[in-house]
## 1
Amino acid sequence: PPCPEGWQEFQSRLYFFSKEKDTWSESRQYCKDRGGDLVTIKSTEKQVFLNGFMKRNHFWIGLSDRGTEGTWKWVDGTALTKGYWKRGEPNDADSAEDCATSEPETTPLNNWNDMPCGVNRHWVCERSVC
Ligand code: 2F8
Ligand code: CA
């Protein structure tokens, strides 16, 4: 796809913070349609950068344990090694939470929460530079 407008560059990758809300799967499809995927977060620098844009809302990130409960995997197929979970998360509330969001108004570094994949949230895409 052509290079999309309105994406932020950080460390030679491009990021999109949605204004709309959608399910985790639909959000992921939006990113894929634009040459990317939901964001992966594998460094503290990136977690800090992203949080500069995610202070006000929940945003889907590219992490789920849909395949095997309790085994968190990034959308690129890699296993989660270091998570920035909010205290008490992930808790799989009502045994129904398999997709990860960033939460607003929590500590900036540890702010992830697992949520039901079918609820509508903002999302963050990542793709290569053009
Ligand atoms: O207390 C944390 C808990 O809060 C909510 O459940 C009551 C969240 N669920 C939704 O917002 C749908 C949980 O994900 C969260 O763990
Ligand atoms: Ca949760």
Note: Residues 44 and 65 are 21 Å apart (CA to CA).
## 2
Amino acid sequence: MDLKAIKGDITTIEADAIVNVANASLMGGGGVDGAIHRAGGPEILEECKKIVAKQGKCKTGEAVVTTAGKLPSNYVIHTVGPVWKGGNKDEVQKLANCYKNSLALAVENNCKTIAFPNISTGVYDFPKDKAAEIAVKTMKMFSERNNTIEKVVFVCFDEENFNLTKNEL
Ligand code: ADP
């Protein structure tokens, strides 16, 4: 599995799947979530609503998949990141679960290329250095047991995340 970090906007990435950081209601929000829904169009939200109607809210660390609407990728995988509350609320495990469950869903949907944002490092306030370490470690552990995903790109929106992620890699 080829792992790399780039600086950019995830809505412009052509991959089999891009990952969104949603909230539990899957109803859209700010940050990367807002950008994905704006660029992808209303089809994404329609599918999110159907998922919630069927299975209820999405728990922290879990992931669901929808169309990517007008985006250049095939699927959007929505995962709910943990809010950083000081580190004693299982935040590390929950962040690792976001990456693991998103990758598992990508495999289930025959995705070979997948793009991730730096989950939870915006308004959810996860320390960026720790988050980058967990993201890369989880990805490497996954790639040791799975060879269907060929390429994972971390699409970092800011310079700090880009440098931290690149260093971890
Ligand atoms: P969270 O609730 O997970 O903290 P945010 O959307 O606030 O969600 O931020 C998550 C990360 O996504 C942050 O590092 C933020 O800089 C980044 N981000 C925001 N917009 C985009 C985008 N268009 N493409 C990629 N990353 C983005």
Note: Helices lie at 31-40, 42-55, 91-108, 128-145, 159-168.
